[in-house]
Amino acid sequence: MKAIGLTRYLPISNPESLVDIELDKPTPTGRDLLVKVEAIAVNPVDTKVRAPKDKVEETPRVLGWDAAGVVEAVGPDVTLFKAGDAVYYAGDITRQGANSEFHLIDERIVGAKPKSLDFTHAAALPLTTITAWEALFDRLKVSAEGKDAGKTMLIVGGAGGVGSIGIQLAKQVAKLHVIATASRPESAKWATELGADRIVNHFDDIPKQLKDAGIGQVDYVLIFNDTDKHFPAAAEVVKPQGAICTIVENARPLAIDLLKAKSAAFHWEFMFTRAMFQTPDMIEQHKLLSEVARLIDAGTIRTTLGKNIGKIDAANLREAHRLLEEGRAIGKLVLTGF
Asked: What PROSITE patterns does the annotation carry (predicted)?
C-alpha cells in the first residue's frame, strides 16, 4: 500500500523529511478496524513529532493523526462497526499514523462519519474536536447541557484548528459568552463567524483589553497557543474559583502560585491520553465523536476545514507541515485521496 513516512527527522525544507513509500497492507486483530483512508488532516503534533533530532528509524515511521475513510475489515472482537461503514477518528500516537492507504485503529476511539459531510470535510474534525471537547467538558467540567449558560470563556488561539471547533462548542453547546484571540483581520473574521462574541489581540495586553471592554475577569480560560507566553495573563484574568486549561506544553516552569489566592484550577488536556494508557474509559472518544457527528448533521456546528492542499502524497504533506510551522494557518489543512 502507498504511505508517506520518514526514517530521519529533518527540517521540512529537506525533501527527505517526508517521502512516498510502499508498505504491506496490515490485517486487523482484536478490536482494530482496518480503514481505507480517504482523507487526512495535519496538526501541530505532526510537525512536533517530525521535528529535527538525531534519532533514526530502522523501519519507516508513518505520522498522521486525523483521518476519515471506510472500514475495509474488522478484528474478531469488534462490535461497534462493520465493513463498509464510513468513519472518522484521530488515532493513537503510540502506533503508526494514518498517512497511508490503509490504517489500523482501535474501534473505541473511532466515530461514525457525519452523514452530511464528505470525507475531506470530516477529516478536518477529529483531533481538534476531541481536544476541545475534553478540555471544555472533561477538564474544565463545563456543562454540555447548557447549565453554565452565560458564563465567560477566553479562548487563546481562536482561529487555529482547536480554537475553531472550541469556539463552536463553547458557544453553541455550552452557551457561554466567548472571547477569542486573533491577531489578523482574516483570523478575527473567521473566529467571529464561528461564534465568538468578542475578539482580542493576543499580541497586545489581554487583561487591559478585557478591562477596557468591561469584562475584566472570566470564568474559564482555554490556552491553545504558547502556554509560556499566555499563562501570566490567564492567571490574571481568571476569576476566583475559575479554571484554566492548556493543550500546549510549557518550555519553562509556570508560576502556578499565581492561582493560589484565587483557588483557581489548572488543567492539562492531551487527547492521546486515553489511547496511550488504555484507560478504562477509552470508549468516551467514540461517544463524543458520535455526538459531534449528530451536532454537525443537525447544523448546530460546522466543519473547520480551512484549506484542501490536494492529494495525499509526500510533496503535499510537506507543504502542509510547512504552512503549520509558519503558524499562520486558519482552520484545518486537509489532503484527499491517494
From this structure: QOR_ZETA_CRYSTAL
Tell me the torsion sign for CA atoms 286, 290, 296, 301.
negative
Report the alpha-carbon distance of residue 45 to residue 263 in Å, rounded.
32
| pTM, to two decimals | 0.95
Residue 265 CA to residue 179 CA, distance in Å, equals 19
Q: Which residues pair with 308 in a beta bridge?
A: 334
DSSP state of 109: G
Alpha-carbon distance of 122 to 117, in angstroms, equals 6
Residue 28 has pLDDT above 90, yes or no: yes
185-193 and 161-168 are packed helices; what angle lies between their axes, rounded to 10 degrees? Answer: 30
Pair 9, 102 in one domain: yes
Do 242 and 150 have their domain in common? yes
CB 73 within 8 A of CB 28: yes
Neighbours of 241 (CB within 10 A): 10
According to the model, what pLDDT value does residue 329 have? 84
pLDDT at 268: 98
The residue count of the chain comes to 338
CATH number reported for the structural domain that contains residue 199 in this entry: 3.40.50.720
For residue 185, the enclosing domain spans: 129-268
Percentage with pLDDT > 70 across the chain? 100
- Half-sphere exposure of 335 toward its Cβ, with a 13 Å CA cutoff? 25
**At residue 69, what are phi and psi to the nearest 5 degrees?**
-175, -160
3-class SS at 68? Answer: strand
Instruction: State which amino acid sits at residue 246.
Output: T
Cα separation, 297 vs 273, in Å, equals 28
Residue 209 and residue 332 in one domain: no
Same domain, 211 and 90: no
